[in-house]
C-alpha cells in the first residue's frame, strides 16, 4: 500500500493537466466582480487627494478652512491627523505628509465628499504654502555627500533586521557581497569588460487603476475593500499605523485587474482608511485616475549599474565587481528589499568564484518605487546580460557557449555561499538556442533591414522575509465537492485554478468539484503573507496540499473506522472512497458532513470535514552584513533563458521582433498551458519595457502621465511567434516539485533584445527603451549610416 | 503636476435645431461655448482642465453633417460629422481619394475612429493630425456656416498655429469639399509612431504625385508633413524640383533633402528635432520612391 | 447642470434614465444601470476597457456622453451571452487561455464581436488592427488573436 501511496504522491490527476481556468466564465461574461464593481450604497462618499506640485519642499502651512466650508464636504484631513509611520521593511512614510513633501504627487491632504466633483472642488480650495528645496534627481549623486538629505530622520525609522540604512545619507539600504578575492583575480583574466548601464523608471500599468474603499464603524473596526495583492500585509500595516488590533481590520479583496507588484504592500489604501476614520459608518471610495496612477502609484526603480567582469582564456568567469545605484524615489519602504535581492543575486545565474558587489538603495525626489514583476532582476539582468555578451565577444567565444560554460549548475557554490539546488538552467539555454536556430543567420527581409539574434539568461529567487508563511483550509460540502480557502490573491496569474488542481489532486476528487472561496477576506480567509515573489504555487500550494491531505486523512480515518479497516488500505479516487483490500466503495457525498453510522445503528462517527494546512520555510539563514555570505540566502531560484530574432530598419531605427523563444525551469508545471500563458504575457511585457516604456521625468516632474505618451505594447506590437518551453527539474520542497514562474519571463527580455540589436547592427544602443530614435541615432553616431 | 478631473467637469449640453441657431448660440456665449462632434479631443481637454467651457454644442445631427457625397464634376463632399471609419469604408473615397482613407486608417484605434472626424482633426489644428496632409494635397476647402452667412475657406490658408485657425466666433464647419483629384494621381502616407500602429505621428509624410504634360518631368508632386512644424506643412520647393527633373534616386534624394530643410520640428516626448528631421528626409525619400514607382507602373499600364 | 431624461435600449431592454449632461455612457452603464461588466481604465479613450457597441459600432463609452445616446441602442458584455449560453467568442477566449486578470476582457470581446460583424473571416493583421485600442497587460495578445480566429471559424454565432 505504501507503494500505491508513493505512486499517487507522484503525479495525481489533474496535476500537470491544462484544465480551463476556474474564473474564466465569469470573466468573459462581465460577471467577475472587481473592487469598483461592488455596490457600496447611497452612503458612499468619494475621496480626492491634495498632492504636492513640488518634488522636494517643506510644508510651511496648510489651510483647509475653505474646503471644510464647502457644502457636501464631510471630512478634510492632513498629516497631523495621522502621526504614525507606515512601511513594509522600513517605516519611512507618513500616511499624509507632515513636514515635508518628497515627490510630485505626495499626498498632503484628503477630502471626503458626497460626490467626486465636490471632493475635487474642495481639494482645489486647500491652500498649502511650501518652501521649495533642492531636489535630488540622480541616485548616484544622491548617494554621495553633496546631495540634499531627503529623510533626515532615517536613523529613527523602524527597519527589518536584514536591511541596512545609512543615516545621514540618502542610502536606505546598502547590501554587500564579498566573495573570494576579486582584486587578486583580475590579473588572471584574459579578458575584462567594464560597462555602465542605466535603466529608467517604468510603471506596472495594470488596466484596472488602484482603488480602495474604506469604512470605519462605531467600534473602530476598519473594513477595506480594495484591488489588492496583499490583504494580510495591508491589514497588518494599517493596523500598526493606526494603533489598532489586526483583528479590528478586515480587508476584502475581490478580483484584481492586474497587479504586477503595484498593488502589493500598502500604498494609496492607507489614504482611504485614514479619511474614513473621520466619517464613521460611511464607506469612502478613493479611485486613482489613470493620470494619478502614473504620478503616484508604485513605479519600478531606476538603476545605474556598473559591471566589471573578467574571464580566463578559456572563457571561464573568474571575477565580477558590480555596483548598483537604485533610484528608489521618495520612499523606499518596500524597495530596500529589491536592492537586497539584486545584491544577493548580483552575479546573475553564473558560477563566479570571486564577486564583489555593492547595491545601494538611494532616496531621490522621484516617484515612489516599489515591487514590480521581477523585483530588481529585470533591471539588473539588463546590464549584466549585455555585459556577458560583450565579454564573450571579447574572448572570442559564442555567447551561447559562454553561457553554457559558466551558468550556475546543481551543487555550485553561488554568490552568497549557498549550494545551488537542482536546476535546469543549462537545459533551458540549450533548448532556446535550438529553437531559435542559434548560429544560423537568415537573410534580412528587405535591403533596408538588418537581422540579428540574441540570448539572455536569468535567475530569480522569491524575495521575501525568510519566514513568509502560507495557510489554507479545505472544507468538504454535502455533495462531496470541496471549497478551498486561501489568502493569496487571483491577479490573473491563475493561482485559484492551480490551487483547485492541487486540492483536487491531493484529495482525490475531480477538478470540477473544487471551488475557491472568494473574495479573499482577512476575517474569513486563512493567512497569506502576500501575493508576490512568484511564491504562491510553491508556498500556498504546499499549504493547500497539506490542507487537502488533512481533509483526506480525516475522511479515510472515518471510513476505515466504519469499515473496520486500515486507513492505509483506503484511497479516494474520483470522489469515491475505495478499499484496495475489501474492494468496498462509498462516494464522499454526505459522509463528509454527516459522518457515517456505526455498525448496528450504535450512533455515528465523523462529522463535517475541514482540512487545515500551512507552509513556512524554516531554513533560510541570515547573511553576514559585511560579506553577504551565509548558508542559505533564499528558498530557491527559478532559472530560464530567452532568445529573440529581430530586424532593424536602418532607415528609421524601428525594430521588429520576428520571434521569441523562452524556456524556464518551473520544477513541475501544474497547468502547462497556464505556464505558457505566463511566459508569453511576461515576454510581451518585457518587450514593451524594451521598446516603449519610460517615465520621462524632467526636474522630478513626470512628462508623460497618460497612455498618449506612456506607450505600452499593443496587439500589433506583440510578435506573432512566441514559443514557450517548459523545463522541469523538480523543487525538493515544492508541491509535486513545482516552483514559481510568474515574474521570470519578463527578466531576460530587455537584454535578449539588446544583444540581438547588437548582433544586427554592431552597436549598443544604450539605455532602454530601445526606441526607433535611439537605435537610429546610435547608428548615425557610430557612423554606420549618414 | 496636472490635476486631471476624475470625470468630466460640469457643463450644459446644447443640441440646437438648426445651424443658424447653433451659430447664434456660440456668438451669444463667447468663451463659454464649444462645438463638438466626436468629442475625442474635447472630452480629454476638459478632463485635463485646459478647456473649461460651460456649454458643449452638439451639431452632428444637423442636416448634411453625416453626408458623404461624390459628384463626378465637383468632387467629394464630406459632412463635418462623418467619422473616420465612415471615410475609410466609403467606396467613393477609396475610388477617388484613397490617400484620405489611408491616412484615416492610421488614426488611433477602431473605437476612437468611430467618433473622431476629419473636420474635428482640422478644426483642432494639431500639427500631428494624420489626415491633414491628405486634405492638403487634395486641395480641400471647408464650407463654413458663420453668423454672417456661408463661405468657403481654403485649407491651405486655414491654419495659423498649433490649435489656431482662421475661424471666428460662431463659425461652424459643415462640410469638407475636395475637388476632382488630378487624373492618374498616386499617393502615399507614411507615418512613423512609437508603436507599430495607433500612436500619434512622430512624423507623417503625405505625397501625392500625378502626370502633367505641361511640366518638364511630366509629373507633379505635392508633399505635406505632419508633426514637424507649428502647423501642417506643405513643401512646395521639393515638388518644384521634381517637376523640373524626372524622378530618379538622385532627384528624389535631393527633393527629400529639400523637404528636410524646409521643416522646423521641436523636441518633445515623442521625438527629438534631430531625429524628426532625419526621418522627414528618409521617409519622404521612401514615399516619393513609392509614388514615382506607382506612377511609372500605371503609365506603363495605360 | 441640467439633467436629461433619455430613452436608450441596452442589451435589448428599453431603459429610461435621468443623466446629467457631463455623465459619460460609461458612467451611466455602471452607475445608473449597474452594468459593471464595462470597465473604466483610463477615462480618456486610450485603453479600450470601456468598449461597448453603440448603434452597431464599437466605441469607447468613456468618450460618449450618455445624453448623446437618447434613442440609441447599446450592447455591453452582459448582452453577449444569451440564455446562459456563451457566445462563440467567449468560449474561444476560454479555450485559448486568452484571459488572465480579466479587466480588459469585456472590452476586448466587444471589439472582437464588432470585428466579426463587419468581417466574418478576418486575417491575423485585421484582428490585431481591430484590437489595437484594447490594451492588455497580461496575455501578450496572441491568445486573444487566436481566440478571435477560433470564433471566426465557427459557422454558428452561439457556441453549443
Oligomer: heterotrimer
User: Mean of the pLDDT scores of chain C?
Assistant: 96
Number of domains of chain C: 2
Beta-strand percentage range of chain C: 15-25%
Strands of the widest sheet of chain C, in order across it, are 2-1-5-3-4
Taking strands numbered 1, 2, ... along the chain, how are they ordered across the largest sheet of chain B? 4-5-10-6-7
Secondary structure tally: strands of chain C: 5
CATH architecture descriptor of the largest domain in chain C:
Roll
Which of globular, elongated, flat, extended, rod-shaped describes the shape of chain C?
globular
User: Given the structure, what is the number of helices of chain B?
Assistant: 11
User: How many structural domains in the coordinates of chain B?
Assistant: 3
Walk me through this protein's architecture.
The complex is a heterotrimer of chains A (786), B (302) and C (160). With 786 residues, chain A is α+β, with helices and mostly antiparallel strands. Chain A folds into 3 domains: 179 residues, Aldehyde Oxidoreductase, domain 4 (2-Layer Sandwich); 177 residues, Aldehyde Oxidoreductase, domain 3; 323 residues, 2-Layer Sandwich (Aldehyde Oxidoreductase, domain 4), CATH 3.30.365. Chain A is 25% helix and 25% strand. In chain A, the strands form 9 sheets. An 8-stranded mixed sheet of chain A has the order 3-7-1-14-11-12-13-22, sandwiched between helices. A 5-stranded mixed sheet of chain A has the order 9-17-16-15-10. In chain A, strands 18-29-30-33 form a 4-stranded mixed sheet, sandwiched between helices. In chain A, helix 14 links the parallel strand 20 and strand 21. In chain A, helix 14 runs parallel beside helix 15 and helix 17 packs across helix 18. Chain A is globular and about 95 Å long. In chain A, 63% of the residues are buried. The N terminus of chain A is likely disordered. By secondary structure, chain B is an alpha+beta fold. Chain B folds into 3 domains: 47 residues, Uridine Diphospho-n-acetylenolpyruvylglucosamine Reductase, domain 2, CATH 3.30.43; 111 residues, 2-Layer Sandwich (Uridine Diphospho-n-acetylenolpyruvylglucosamine Reductase, domain 3); 113 residues, Enolase-like, domain 1 (2-Layer Sandwich). Chain B has 11 helices and 14 strands. In chain B, the strands form 4 sheets. Chain B has a 5-stranded antiparallel sheet with strand order 4-5-10-6-7. In chain B, strands 11-12-13-14 form a 4-stranded antiparallel sheet. Chain B has a 3-stranded parallel sheet with strand order 1-3-2, covered by helices on one side. In chain B, helix 9 runs antiparallel to helix 10 and helix 10 packs antiparallel against helix 11. Chain B is globular and about 60 Å long. Chain C has 160 residues and is α+β, with helices and mostly antiparallel strands. Chain C has 2 domains: 77 residues, Ubiquitin-like (UB roll) (Roll), CATH 3.10.20; 65 residues, [2Fe-2S]-binding domain (DNA polymerase, domain 1, Orthogonal Bundle). Helices cover 30% and strands 17% of the residues of chain C. Chain C is built from 5 helices and 5 strands; from the N terminus they run E-E-H-E-E-E-H-H-H-H. In chain C, helix 2 packs across helix 5. Chain C is globular. The relative contact order of chain C is 0.17. Chains in contact: A-B, A-C, B-C. Chains B and C meet through helix 2 and helix 6 of B and strand 4 and helix 3 of C.
Amino acid at each position: 500500500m505504501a507503494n500505491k501511496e508513493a505512486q499517487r504522491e507522484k503525479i495525481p490527476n489533474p496535476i500537470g493537466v491544462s484544465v480551463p481556468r476556474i474564473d474564466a466564465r465569469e470573466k468573459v461574461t462581465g460577471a467577475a466582480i472587481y473592487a469598483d464593481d461592488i455596490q457600496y450604497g447611497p452612503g458612499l462618499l468619494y475621496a480626492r487627494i491634495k498632492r504636492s506640485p513640488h518634488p522636494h519642499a517643506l510644508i510651511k502651512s496648510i489651510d483647509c478652512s475653505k474646503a471644510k466650508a464647502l457644502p457636501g464636504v464631510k471630512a478634510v484631513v492632513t498629516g497631523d491627523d495621522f502621526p504614525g509611520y507606515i512601511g513594509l521593511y522600513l517605516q519611512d512614510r507618513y500616511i499624509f505628509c507632515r513636514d515635508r513633501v518628497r515627490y510630485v504627487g505626495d499626498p498632503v491632504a484628503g477630502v471626503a465628499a458626497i460626490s467626486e466633483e465636490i471632493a475635487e472642488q474642495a481639494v482645489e480650495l486647500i491652500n498649502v504654502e511650501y518652501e521649495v528645496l533642492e531636489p535630488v534627481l540622480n541616485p548616484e549623486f544622491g548617494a554621495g555627500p553633496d546631495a540634499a538629505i531627503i529623510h533626515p530622520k532615517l536613523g529613527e525609522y523602524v527597519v527589518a533586521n536584514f536591511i541596512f540604512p545609512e543615516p545621514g545619507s540618502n542610502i536606505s539600504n546598502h547590501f554587500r557581497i564579498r566573495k573570494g578575492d576579486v582584486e587578486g583575480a583580475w590579473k588572471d583574466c584574459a579578458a575584462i569588460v567594464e560597462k555602465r548601464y542605466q535603466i529608467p523608471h517604468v510603471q506596472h500599468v495594470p488596466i484596472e487603476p488602484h482603488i480602495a474603499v474604506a469604512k470605519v464603524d462605531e467600534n473602530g473596526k476598519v473594513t477595506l475593500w480594495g484591488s489588492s495583492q496583499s490583504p494580510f500585509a495591508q491589514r497588518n500595516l494599517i493596523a500598526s499605523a493606526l494603533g489598532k488590533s489586526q483583528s479590528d481590520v478586515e480587508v476584502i479583496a475581490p478580483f484584481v485587474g492586474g497587479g504586477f507588484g503595484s498593488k502589493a504592500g500598502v500604498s494609496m489604501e492607507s489614504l482611504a482608511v485614514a479619511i474614513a476614520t473621520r466619517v464613521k459608518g460611511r464607506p469612502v471610495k478613493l479611485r486613482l485616475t489613470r493620470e494619478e496612477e502614473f504620478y503616484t502609484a508604485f513605479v519600478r526603480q531606476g538603476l545605474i549599474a556598473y559591471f566589471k567582469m573578467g574571464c580566463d582564456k578559456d572563457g571561464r568567469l573568474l571575477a565580477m565587481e558590480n555596483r548598483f545605484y537604485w533610484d528608489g524615489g521618495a520612499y523606499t519602504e518596500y524597495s530596500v528589499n529589491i536592492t537586497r535581492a539584486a545584491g544577493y543575486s548580483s552575479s546573475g545565474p553564473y558560477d563566479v568564484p570571486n564577486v564583489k558587489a555593492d547595491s545601494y538603495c538611494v532616496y531621490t525626489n522621484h516617484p515612489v518605487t516599489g515591487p514590480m514583476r521581477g523585483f530588481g532582476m529585470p533591471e539588473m539582468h539588463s546590464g549584466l546580460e549585455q555585459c556577458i555578451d560583450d565579454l564573450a565577444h571579447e574572448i572570442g567565444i559564442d555567447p551561447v557557449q559562454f553561457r553554457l560554460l559558466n551558468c550556475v549548475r546543481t551543487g555550485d557554490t553561488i554568490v552568497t555561499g549557498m549550494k545551488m539546488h537542482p536546476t535546469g538552467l543549462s537545459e533551458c539555454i540549450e533548448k532556446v538556442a535550438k529553437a531559435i536556430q542559434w548560429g544560423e543567420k537568415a537573410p534580412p527581409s528587405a535591403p533596408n533591414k538588418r537581422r540579428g539574434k540574441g540570448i539572455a539568461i536569468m535567475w530569480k529567487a522569491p524575495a521575501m522575509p525568510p519566514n513568509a508563511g502560507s495557510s489554507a483550509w479545505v472544507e468538504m460540502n454535502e455533495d462531496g465537492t470541496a471549497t478551498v480557502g486561501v489568502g493569496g490573491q487571483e491577479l490573473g496569474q491563475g493561482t485559484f485554478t492551480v490551487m483547485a488542481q492541487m486540492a483536487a489532486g491531493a484529495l482525490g476528487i475531480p477538478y470540477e468539484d473544487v471551488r475557491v472561496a472568494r473574495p479573499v477576506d482577512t476575517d474569513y480567509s486563512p493567512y497569506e503573507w502576500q501575493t508576490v515573489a512568484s511564491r504562491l504555487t510553491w508556498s500556498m500550494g504546499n499549504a493547500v496540499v497539506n490542507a487537502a491531505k488533512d481533509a483526506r486523512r480525516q475522511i479515510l480515518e472515518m471510513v476505515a473506522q466504519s469499515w473496520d479497516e486500515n486507513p492505509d488500505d483506503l484511497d479516494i479516487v474520483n470522489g469515491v472512497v475505495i478499499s484496495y483490500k475489501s474492494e468496498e466503495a462509498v462516494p464522499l457525498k454526505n459522509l463528509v458532513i454527516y459522518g457515517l453510522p456505526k455498525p448496528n445503528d450504535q450512533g455515528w462517527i465523523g462529522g463535517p470535514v475541514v482540512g487545515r494546512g500551512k507552509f513556512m520555510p524554516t531554513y533560510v539563514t541570515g547573511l553576514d552584513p559585511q560579506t553577504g555570505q551565509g548558508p542559505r540566502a533564499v528558498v530557491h531560484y527559478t532559472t530560464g533563458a530567452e532568445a529573440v530574432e529581430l530586424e532593424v530598419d536602418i532607415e528609421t531605427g524601428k525594430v521588429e521582433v520576428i520571434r521569441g523563444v523562452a524556456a524556464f525551469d518551473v520544477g513541475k508545471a501544474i497547468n502547462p498551458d497556464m505556464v505558457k500563458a505566463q511566459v508569453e504575457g511576461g515576454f510581451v511585457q518585457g518587450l514593451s519595457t524594451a521598446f516603449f516604456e519610460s517615465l520621462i521625468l524632467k526636474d522630478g516632474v513626470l512628462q508623460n502621465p497618460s497612455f498618449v505618451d506612456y506607450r505600452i505594447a499593443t496587439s500589433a506590437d506583440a510578435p506573432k511567434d512566441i514559443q514557450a518551453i517548459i523545463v522541469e527539474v523538480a523543487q525538493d520542497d515544492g508541491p509535486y516539485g513545482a516552483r514559481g514562474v510568474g515574474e521570470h519571463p519578463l527578466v531576460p527580455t530587455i537584454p535578449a533584445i539588446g544583444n540581438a540589436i547588437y548582433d544586427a547592427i554592431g552597436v549598443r544602443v544604450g539605455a532602454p527603451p530601445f526606441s526607433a530614435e535611439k537605435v537610429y541615432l546610435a547608428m548615425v553616431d557610430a557612423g554606420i549610416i549618414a | 503636476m496636472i490635476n486631471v478631473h476624475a470625470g468630466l467637469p460640469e457643463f450644459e449640453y446644447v443640441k440646437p435645431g438648426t445651424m443658424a441657431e447653433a451659430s447664434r448660440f456660440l456668438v451669444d456665449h463667447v468663451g463659454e461655448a464649444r462645438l463638438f462632434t466626436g468629442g475625442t479631443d474635447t472630452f480629454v481637454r476638459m478632463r485635463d482642465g485646459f478647456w473649461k467651457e460651460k456649454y458643449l454644442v452638439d451639431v452632428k445631427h444637423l442636416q448634411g453633417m453625416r453626408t458623404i457625397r461624390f459628384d463626378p464634376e465637383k468632387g467629394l463632399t464630406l459632412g463635418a460629422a462623418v467619422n473616420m471609419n465612415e471615410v475609410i469604408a466609403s467606396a467613393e473615397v477609396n475610388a477617388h481619394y484613397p490617400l484620405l482613407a489611408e491616412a484615416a486608417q492610421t488614426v488611433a484605434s477602431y473605437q476612437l475612429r468611430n467618433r473622431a472626424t476629419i473636420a474635428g482633426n482640422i478644426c483642432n489644428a494639431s500639427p500631428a493630425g494624420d489626415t491633414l496632409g491628405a486634405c492638403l494635397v487634395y486641395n480641400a476647402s471647408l464650407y463654413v456656416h458663420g453668423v454672417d452667412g456661408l463661405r468657403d475657406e481654403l485649407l491651405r490658408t486655414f491654419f495659423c498655429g498649433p490649435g489656431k485657425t482662421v475661424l471666428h466666433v460662431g463659425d461652424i464647419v459643415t462640410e469638407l469639399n475636395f475637388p476632382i483629384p488630378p487624373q492618374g494621381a498616386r499617393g502615399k502616407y507614411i507615418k512613423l509612431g512609437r508603436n507599430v500602429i495607433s500612436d500619434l505621428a512622430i512624423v507623417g509624410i503625405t505625397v501625392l504625385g500625378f502626370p502633367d504634360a505641361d511640366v518638364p518631368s511630366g509629373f507633379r508632386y505635392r508633399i505635406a508633413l505632419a508633426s514637424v512644424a507649428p502647423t501642417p506643412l506643405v513643401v512646395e520647393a521639393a515638388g518644384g524640383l521634381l517637376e523640373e527633373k524626372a524622378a530618379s534616386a538622385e532627384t528624389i534624394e535631393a527633393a527629400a533633402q529639400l523637404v528636410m530643410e524646409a521643416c522646423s520640428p521641436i523636441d518633445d516626448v515623442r521625438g527629438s528635432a534631430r531625429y524628426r528631421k532625419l526621418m522627414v528626409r528618409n521617409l519622404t525619400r521612401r514615399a516619393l520612391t513609392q509614388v514615382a514607382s506607382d506612377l511609372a507602373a500605371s503609365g506603363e499600364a495605360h | 447642470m441640467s439633467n436629461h431624461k433619455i430613452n436608450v435600449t441596452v442589451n435589448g431592454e428599453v431603459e429610461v434614465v435621468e443623466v446629467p449632461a457631463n455623465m459619460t455612457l460609461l458612467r451611466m452603464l455602471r452607475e445608473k444601470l449597474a452594468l459593471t461588466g464595462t470597465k473604466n481604465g483610463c477615462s480618456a479613450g486610450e485603453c479600450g476597457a470601456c468598449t461597448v457597441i453603440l448603434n452597431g459600432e464599437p466605441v469607447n463609452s468613456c468618450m460618449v456622453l450618455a445624453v448623446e445616446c437618447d434613442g440609441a441602442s447599446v450592447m455591453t458584455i452582459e448582452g453577449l451571452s444569451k440564455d446562459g449560453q456563451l457566445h462563440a467568442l467567449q468560449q474561444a477566449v476560454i479555450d485559448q487561455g486568452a484571459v488572465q486578470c480579466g479587466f480588459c476582457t469585456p472590452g476586448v470581446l466587444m471589439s472582437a464581436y464588432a470585428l466579426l460583424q463587419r468581417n466574418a473571416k478576418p486575417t491575423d493583421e485585421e484582428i490585431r488592427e481591430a484590437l489595437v485600442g484594447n490594451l492588455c497587460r497580461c496575455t501578450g495578445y496572441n491568445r486573444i488573436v487566436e481566440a478571435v480566429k477560433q470564433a471566426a471559424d465557427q459557422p454558428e454565432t452561439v457556441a453549443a
